[in-house]
């Protein structure tokens, strides 16, 4: 049994790691050696995902790297363009840049900022990123983004970076379809993917896009024989997302009450069926999150299944 799209995994250091970066490199090596094709890094307030992508891309040949995702606030697009090109050069062209609009309550608490026109900022941000990476100079004087660097922005070996956005709302999807290469939805179930996300992107796509559309569906999945126990743990971990309007909206579209209801946790057959539903809904790629919820043994078991499905 196989799935006809690539499957990657997000990795994060275990709480007892002595050195978080060493641990991420070790996990990336283990994922690659198991047969997983890509590893992705989230962004919190500690480890920097773009730096991790560069480090892992350099240290672990043979695996693609990506960010899922870098919030566009408060980082300026020129800063992100420089970091992204550095990661692309360090990885030898195996990097993808995943961006997100961010979580307003977290940004307000941490940075004292609140963006009242997030989609306008996203549009201007993507335009500036494209110019910085693909043209080597930027001329954007928008309502929310100003980018006019007096020096070139090109990093040799750092070009050709696919831009993906964790867009799920209608306006953000429209901007993503028009200006980015794809989408990185998380907690958006198969129904939402098929009826809302994929059609919105396809309607917004330009007639002659730079790259084929990438729909990288983020799915919480764990292969385990302790399904009920692990689901209980996952329910606690995922409840964090239910406080944010963007996630609440996609859960409502899916017709489920809680984030755990779109997680795929069970034996190999159960997880395979669950992942296949996302592919049938239009995903061109899968990104499995939080495969470590049941511990290292079941994480490795999960990775082996993912590798087998794409072999």
TrEMBL record:
EC number from the UniProt entry: 1.-.-.-
A Pfam family matched in the record: Bac_luciferase
Protein origin, superkingdom: Bacteria
Segments forming a coiled coil: none
Transmembrane helix among keywords: no
Record's keyword terms, sorted: Oxidoreductase
Tagged with keyword Disulfide bond: no
Domain spans labelled Luciferase-like: 10-284
MF term (GO), any: oxidoreductase activity, acting on paired donors, with incorporation or reduction of molecular oxygen
Database matches in PANTHER family: 5,10-METHYLENETETRAHYDROMETHANOPTERIN REDUCTASE (PTHR43244:SF1), PTHR43244
Protein name (Swiss-Prot/TrEMBL): TIGR03564 family F420-dependent LLM class oxidoreductase
Species whose genome carries this gene: Nocardia veterana
């Amino acid at each position: 049994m196989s799935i006809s799209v690539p499957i990657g995994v997000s990795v994060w250091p275990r709480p007892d790691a002595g050195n978080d970066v060493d641990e991420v490199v070790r996990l990336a090596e283990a994922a690659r050696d198991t047969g997983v094709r890509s590893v992705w890094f989230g962004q919190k307030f500690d480890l920097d995902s773009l730096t991790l992508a560069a480090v892992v891309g350099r240290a672990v040949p043979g695996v693609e790297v990506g960010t899922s995702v870098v919030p566009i606030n408060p980082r300026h697009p020129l800063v992100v363009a420089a970091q992204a090109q550095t990661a692309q050069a360090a990885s030898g062209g195996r990097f993808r840049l995943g961006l997100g609009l961010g979580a307003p309550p977290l940004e307000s608490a941490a940075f004292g900022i609140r963006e009242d026109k997030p989609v306008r900022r996203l549009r201007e941000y993507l335009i500036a990123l494209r110019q910085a990476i693909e043209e080597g100079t930027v001329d954007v004087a928008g309502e929310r983004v100003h980018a006019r660097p007096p020096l070139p922005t090109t990093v040799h070996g750092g070009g050709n970076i696919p831009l993906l956005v964790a867009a799920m709302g209608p306006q953000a999807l429209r901007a993503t379809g028009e200006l980015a290469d794809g989408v990185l939805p998380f907690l958006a179930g198969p129904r939402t993917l098929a009826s809302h996300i994929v059609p919105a992107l396809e309607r917004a796509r330009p007639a002659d896009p730079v790259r084929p559309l990438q729909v990288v569906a983020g799915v919480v999945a764990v292969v385990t024989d302790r399904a009920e126990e692990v689901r209980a743990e996952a329910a606690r971990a995922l409840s964090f997302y239910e406080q944010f309007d963007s996630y609440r909206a996609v859960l409502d579209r899916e017709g489920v009450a809680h984030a755990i209801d779109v997680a795929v946790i069970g034996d190999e057959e159960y997880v395979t069926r669950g992942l296949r539903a996302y592919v049938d809904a239009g995903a061109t790629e899968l990104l499995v999150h939080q495969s470590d919820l049941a511990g290292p043994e079941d994480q490795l078991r999960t990775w082996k299944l993912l590798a087998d499905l794409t072999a």
